[in-house]
Each structure stands twice: as C-alpha cells, then as structure tokens.
Specification:
alpha+beta, 11 helices, about 50% helix, globular
C-alpha cells in the first residue's frame, strides 16, 4: 500500500526494522542497481567503527554512486562530483543541520541508531537526513570514498540528481527563489523538531545551535547573518553558501 511519498514509505519501513530489531539496515530504492561489493564494503566499514566506538553507539556509513540514465548509461562517475558535494561535511553537526550530503540509498546503519531515532516525526524533510542528524549528534558518521551503486535517473524520480554549475546556480537564484527559501525554512522546522524530540539529551553546544537556528526568523536581518557567520554555517559549495546567506 502506498504511503504517499518516499519519506513516508521509508519511515514506515524504519518502524518495521525497529520492531524486528535488525542489527543493520540498508535503504534500497527499487530503481537503482547495487554494485557487487556494496554490502560487503559497507559492513566491513560499519563493523570497523563498532570496534572503535562500540555496538551501542549510533553509527551510519554512506558512500558515493555512479549517476546513470534509464538504460544504465553512465552520466557521471561520481554523484559527489556531479552535485559538487563534500563528503567530509558529515563530520560536523552544524554542516548536517543545513544540508544532507549523504544519499539514503547508499547508507547502512546499526540498531543503536534505530533505537536512538525512535519514531520518525512527520515534520522532517527526509528520512535519511533525519538519521544522519541523529547519528551526528549522538554517535558517528563516516563514509566510503567509492561508488556503491548505479543511481538511475528517469522522469519519475522523486529525488533526482542535477549537475551543479555556475549556470544552474544562477538560474536557480533567478527562477527558483521560492524553492530556496522553502528549503531553508524546512531545515529550520526540522531543527526545531529535532530539539523537541531530543531536548536535554543533546550535548549543550548542539542543543543551543539547533534551537537558535530553528528560531532564526525571530532575529533581525543583520542578526541572522551574524548568527550564521558566528557558527560557521555553510553548505558544500561557495554558490550554495552564497544562496543560503542571501535568503536566510
């Protein structure tokens, strides 16, 4: 039975995975093609993290992908390069607060993260972004610097891939201003929900940052910019960061 969206679909599956108490979970999008070593490479990585941080620590691992068309012809050898994403952004909560750099379809995470995430709220932006926020705040996020699957692009992608360039960024600034503003607003709402869910469980610095970011609209135009600069809030490219500071 349809859940109405990818987010709702995966949220329902996450609840099922939690109920079944699975030790590890992978997200699988039905239109992608997993490479032969996706599971083995991901499991080796997450188990190595468990050796360091323990199985009771929420852990999440993600990787890169090859962007392909409907017929599996390669469009780009690296999703990260195609979208101009910096995978190292996963290592700081203030980065993840603004932008998720990990594709859900490349993720593996452990039972500890399932337990910590609990019931996924409706008001989040996306299920994978929520999980990486939780892992970043309470555990560890790491990545494999290699493609794990063929990421298929077609007309019915709910979330697709678009090559990042100066032209595409300028075009978005001019013609899609509303979508930029809406994206920023949604990230603020998600930050507020994050604080509501975890509150005093959060480390003090993360709690203050997430709470103040969620209430950013209460500040003046100048104070919003100062807050973002003070907390080194930025996205994974100069153009994305510029757009954020213009519209925040």
């Amino acid at each position: 039975e349809s859940s109405g969206s990818a987010k709702n679909n995966f949220t329902r599956l996450i609840a099922l995975a939690f109920e079944k108490r699975f030790d590890y979970v992978f997200f699988s999008d039905q239109d992608d093609v997993w490479l032969n070593d996706k599971i083995s490479s991901s499991m080796e990585k997450i188990r190595s993290l468990e050796m360091v941080y323990g199985k009771n620590t929420p852990l999440l691992v993600f990787g890169d992908s090859v962007v392909v068309d409907e017929g599996l012809q390669e469009l780009a050898s690296s999703f990260w390069e195609y979208e101009n994403l910096d995978s190292d952004f996963c290592n700081k909560f203030n980065n993840i607060l603004l932008q998720n750099v990990a594709q859900g379809c490349t993720m593996v995470f452990n039972l500890a993260l399932l337990e910590k995430s609990g019931v996924i709220p409706n008001a989040i932006v996306m299920h994978d972004w929520w999980l990486i926020l939780v892992a970043s705040a309470f555990g560890k996020v790491d990545y494999l610097d290699k493609p794990l699957l063929l990421y298929r692009q077609h007309d019915t992608n709910e979330v697709g891939s678009r090559k990042m360039s100066i032209f595409s960024a300028i075009s978005k600034f001019i013609y899609q201003r509303d979508s930029i503003v809406r994206s920023i607003q949604n990230s603020k709402i998600q930050a507020g929900v994050f604080v509501e869910c975890f509150g005093d469980q959060l480390p003090s610095d993360i709690l203050v940052l997430a709470k103040e970011y969620s209430l950013l609209d209460e500040k003046t135009w100048l104070k919003r910019k100062v807050f973002c600069l003070k907390n080194k809030l930025r996205k994974t490219s100069t153009l994305r960061t510029l757009g954020f500071y213009i519209f925040v």
